[in-house]
Structure formats: C-alpha cells, structure tokens
Amino acid sequence: MPLRLRGKKKAKSKETAGLVKGEPTGAGGGSSASRAPARRLVFHAQLAHGSATGRVEGFSSIQELYAQIADAFEISPSEILYCTLNTPRIDMERLLGGQLGLEDFIFAHVKGIKKEVNVYKSEDSLGVTITDNGVGYAFIKRIKDGGVIDSIKTICVGDHIESINGENIVGWRHCDVAKKLKELKKEELFTMNLIEPKKAFEIEPRSKAGKSSGEKIGSGRATLRLRSKGPATVEEMPSETKAKAIEKIDDVLELYMGIRDIDLATTMFEAGKDKVNPDEFAVALDETLGDFAFPDEFVFDVWGVIGDAKRRGL
I need a surface site. Which of 80, 148, 177, 179 has the fewest CB within 10 A? Predict the structure, then answer.
C-alpha cells in the first residue's frame, strides 16, 4: 500500500529555545523585555594547520560560529572550509556537524592549495561521498577503494569542490553536488577545481575515509545543537540506542540518496520517534523535509530503524 506522502499535515510543535543571541561586545544597554539571563558558553579553537588558541562564544548558528572563529584569528569567514572536533587531522568521523559537545575543542581547516583535476568517468559511479559544511562549501568525505576517484591520487578526502566543468558550485547543498556528479556522462572527461585544506606539514598519506580513534567526542553530558538556520539549543547527549539508530539512518541515506548527512538523519529520527506507523512518519517527513522526494522504500527502511530503536528503549 503506497504511503500518502502528501496527506493532511499536522501542526508542528517544536520544543526549541534560542541558546544565546550573538551580542556585540561592550554593547551599551538596550534592554529586551523580560529577557532571562542566558548561560554564555565559551569554546576554545585553533586553526588546524597551527595557531594560538582562541575563544569563541555567543554564537547561535553555524554561520555565527564561523564568523566568531574568523574574528578570533583575523581571517575571512569564507576562508574556513570546515571544522573538526578534538583533532586537527582531516578526520571525517570528527567533523563538526549538527552537534557540539560542551567540552569539545574546535579545529578550523582553512583554504590551502588550489588544484584543477581532469577525471575520465569510466564508470557510472565515481566512488565518492560528498558532504558540506552547512554554509555552502561541499567537500569530499569518503573515497571508495578501487573507484574512479581512488585512481586519481591528487584528489583527497577533505578537498573542497569549487567548480565542476567551469560551473561554480559554491553555495550548493552536498546532495545537489552529488546529483551533478552522478548526471555527468559516462566515458567522458570532466574537470573539477578543488581546494585542499591548509596543512602545517604532511604526517601521513591521504585518507580514504578519515580514521577515528574510537574515543567519544567531548566528555560533557550535554551538547550544543547547531543548525544552518535558526537558533542553537542545548540538548542532553543522545542515548547509545538513539546514536546507533541515527548512524543506521545515515547509512540508509547513503544507500538510497548517495549522501551522508548526520544532521539530516537526526532530523528524520526526531520526526519519527513518536509516530505509531509508517503513514504518520511519512506525513511528518513531508512536513519537515518536503523538499526531498523520498521513495516509499526509503521511508519504510528508515521507519524500520526507528522501530527497532523504540523497541530497545530510547
């Protein structure tokens, strides 16, 4: 029985509250009506290729965090490609995504060498996974062993894709970049302009997936949840069952959509955790993520992951 993705929508209920509004330092006293004092969180950051330690605080979104980091190190926000947590290495398992542990240390990877690469698309799949930094920069997250991209050693995990065949893709979502690459004709040559992150020195050969030490990121019991749009919120650390379910949804996203996006996977989990059947879940997805045309098989698989997590207890 097909899911009714365009069924009657229910009113949304969001239990979110702004964490901290970015306030100019030393601003003189304009008072907000009945504004309660907010806890001002302070994080420490460095440039991944080496720098002194800076402080960032008062941000409520990914864009504001990047602006804070740029201000701390006197660079332009547009120089920041992405951030990793608790390691300066290009470790794709430690990317700053939708959540930031309250004791996490932030490393900002900035633009380094530019390179132009010609690629012959000998297979339908290039063997590459694309993600983005939440503010318009798409980059390579994984390279599949034996794939087309794997054969080109100048292309590395962490490289920002600036243009494809001369078309500037800055500002595109990672799913749109992946679609663009997928639609390129087989057995034809195409060109990518890439920017690799700046490095202090080479300490190891290129990584295909970014190896993680397996340690948990941060030691705090709470996390700061960041969004590309809207305020940040402080949330409890997810249970192990929930965290594993979100990882599985991320795997399903890659299988069906060719993308990995832990923030999107988290949004889908939250949309389905209180639903009682796949039809309700489909309606919730349509309300929350209407821009995506998810196939019914995908919805059923994600619902199965959520159902398993609910049976184990969240």
Answer: 179
Q: Three-state SS for 174?
A: helix
Phi, psi of 154 (to 5 degrees): -80, -10
Radius of gyration over every alpha carbon of the chain, rounded to an integer in angstroms: 21
Tell which residue, 28, 31, 80, has the closest CA to residue 56.
80
SS3 11: coil
CB 169 within 8 A of CB 55: no
CA dihedral 216, 217, 220, 226 (to 10 degrees): -140
User: Exposure of 168 by Cβ count < 10 A (0-12 exposed, 13-18 middle, 19+ buried)?
Assistant: exposed
**pLDDT averaged over every residue in the chain:** 79
Query: Could you tell me where the DSSP H helices lie in 89-192?
Result: 174-183
Lowest mean pLDDT among 117-131, 192-206, 271-285: 192-206
C-alpha pair distances (Å), 66 with each of 45, 76, 215, 256, 285: 11, 9, 25, 31, 29
Pairwise pLDDT comparison (254 vs 7), residue with the higher score: 254
Q: Which of 47-51, 61-65, 147-151, 225-229 is least confident?
A: 225-229
Q: How far apart are CA 70 and CA 164, in angstroms?
A: 27
State CA 119 to chain mean position distance: 26
Which residue type does 313 have?
A: G
192: enclosing H helix or E strand: strand 189-197
* Percentages of the chain per state (helix, strand, coil), in multiples of 5: 30, 25, 50
> Does 221 have pLDDT greater than 90?
no
Q: In terms of DSSP bridges, do strands 42-47 and 105-120 run parallel, antiparallel, or are they unpaired? A: parallel
Angstrom distance (rounded) from CA 298 to CA 313:
23
What pLDDT does 185 receive? 94
Q: What confidence tens digit (pLDDT) does each residue in 266-302 have?
A: 889 999 999 989 899 999 888 888 767 788 888 999 9
Kindly report the number of other CB atoms within 10 A of residue 81's CB atom: 22
